[in-house]
Amino acid sequence: MSNSARVETLKEIVGRSPRSITYPKTQDGKPKYTSEVFGENVFSLAQMAKALPKPVFASFMKQLRGRQALDRATADAIAHAVRIWAMDRGATHFTHWFQPQTDTTAEKHDAFLSLKSTFTAAGEEVTAIDSFSGSQLLQAEPDASSFPSGGMRSTFEARGYTVWDTTSPMFLQPGPHGTSVLYIPSVFISYNGDALDEKTVLLRSTEQVSKACCELLNLIDPVPLGAQPKYSRVSTTLGTEQEYFLIDRALYAQRPDLKHTGRTLVGNLPPKHQQMEDHYFGRVPSKVMATMSEAELELMRLGVPIKTRHNEVAPQQFELAPIFEEASLAVDHNLLTMDVLAKVAHKNKLKVLFHEKPFKGINGSGKHCNWSMSTDRGENLLDPTVKPETNYRFLLILAAVLHAVHQHGGLLRATIASASNEHRLGAQEAPPGIVSAFLGEHLNEVLNSVEEARPLKNFSKPEIQSIKLGGTVLDVKVATLPAISRDLTDRNRTSPFAFTGNKFEFRAVGSKQSPSFPVTVLNAAVASALQDVSAALRKQMGSKPAPSDADKLAVIRQFITSTKAIRFEGDGYSDAWVEEAERRGLPNIKNCPDAFAQLNDPKHVEMLTKLGIFSRSELSARYHILHERYAKDVLVEANTMRTLLTQQILPSAFEYRANLAQTAALLKGIEGEGESPELVALKAMTPVVKDLQAAIKKLEDSIHNMHVVEGDAVAEAVVANKEVVPAMGEARKHADKLEELTADKFYPIPRYSEILWF
Length: 758
Hints:
Family: Belongs to the glutamine synthetase family.
Domain GS catalytic: 198-649
Domain GS beta-grasp: 92-193
CATH architecture of the largest domain: 2-Layer Sandwich
Largest sheet: 9 strands, mixed
Radius of gyration: 29 Å
Strand content: 15-25%
GO molecular function: glutamine synthetase activity
Number of domains: 3
Shape: globular
CATH topology of the largest domain: Creatine Kinase, Chain A, domain 2
Protein name: Glutamine synthetase
CATH superfamily of the largest domain: Glutamine synthetase/guanido kinase, catalytic domain
Distance between the termini: 23 Å
């Protein structure tokens, strides 16, 4: 056993050239503008309008705006139009693309090919034709038995349905040999109508937010009796910042832990990692830039509005961020982003890691969900404007959001709980397991002044020249620099739910997970809170036709006071905050089984079921699915670690020990009195090897204890958390010490120094 495979791989990596692609050009050979490429592989509303007769398109738009099911004639017309559009661009197959409860997407491809039989006097004549009907567009039937169902479906009950989500446009993805596949974004439901996916509940939650928010907006801004309400639709908007690692695929292939679990189960930091703070926003390595650029081109073609790319804090860590979109479409686009990044990285001989904590001791990765609400007039309801202290609509909406987080913070914590995110929360630039909200100095003072019925404190400082829309202007005493706009709030990177100017950033969401479930629950909690605010306002205004400013202020003050415990402006990583949060009565949920238990809390169950976002059976199923997934993830990690330690790490240590022993024996008597350096090194390794062997035995015992309770997902998750995870931590401690003592020539797998600095 030796490190020869590592050495040869590193030589190959050094000599490897980045993959090159041709950027799209116009007919005269000039590079196309981004706007010309954007959405070219999407069957957008504009494309649909061109392809459909005007009455059919008008019918579709009417049904879309009214959130009504399509009639068969309209579906047939759309199916025919999209087939022609897709096949003209090389499509041979179509697929209903959906989101099972696996944090991934699923698809089953069907060809456009059909056979047509014609009966003549000579007999039956079979002809091949291309066809795609409205019924095929609207609905398909994948096998539902092999997807997580949490007991809602038996193994022998296989039927499930995918149904086209008309709010998300169809698109083309490249297939093999220059062909393509038509993707139809869909929901996934069981034979009995239960949601088996992530999207159905997200769509339900956005409807409830719209309904509750319009109710409040029309209450505070009424119209004359008999007139149409001013507000008929409110959308939740989302921008998902995606963090990830990129490493060389050849080195990845030599790490069984990375291949099977997405993270390193053993390994020490190199002398230089992120402590110099020189990677963040630094120059993007050429291999990575080539991958980023190719992925962005594919995403632009798919209508994914990628805006930002940069180095993140840890070595080989990067980020892509999009422009805000309606929430359900933003979720689709985030999952597409992950899929495209993985495919393009593979073509560039790299491997993308979405795991929240692939490397111990350096920053993990998150998926910061920037969330807000917008009216059908394009108004951002979380925009404080120039004077938030007198913007009562904004303050009522803000009070509702704070009320939502205060009432259902534990449930929000459950939505970001996973075996992988558990390693990240509370460490290196990741928010803690205590859910709190950060507003910033200015907005916090606005709420305090309203609550205390006093004037707003003066925030002006010598370096501040004047108040401008949305913030202030800074004077940095350099004449050649323009005025620098300053936001109303600073940013708090330690807060799991931070206000960042005109939106909230839900920072605790894990990089690997779908944003759908966290956003669904956030939407649900806000919808319920908006109902509470409306009810309080009606009670306050009594029989009056509209609330006065005094009525609004009274309700705002009521919710400012009741939600004060959830507001925290300090360092979320500090021990002092843990103690303070306990005094405030905020839950500090430290592990996944305790987080999942929040789904059984009567307060949360009542809210989710009352709004119709989950049925009780769907909620119960998700409770069991989360436990089952957690237990399986931990068990895969434990078995991978046991195999890695017993088949690679220990044997390499044994070989090195044998080499040391042989050398020490040969040198005995030659070097005079005392122990030889080789013998000293051998004796230093011996207790570590024994400790590792004992830790492996303890790990094996914990794995056995999981098998004892096999079949009970909740019990398995508890054993995984209380026994297996600590046993893995203990084994890793000794394995990492052994790595320090083992000569590089004998160490069998790529080290951090090679993976993070290829």
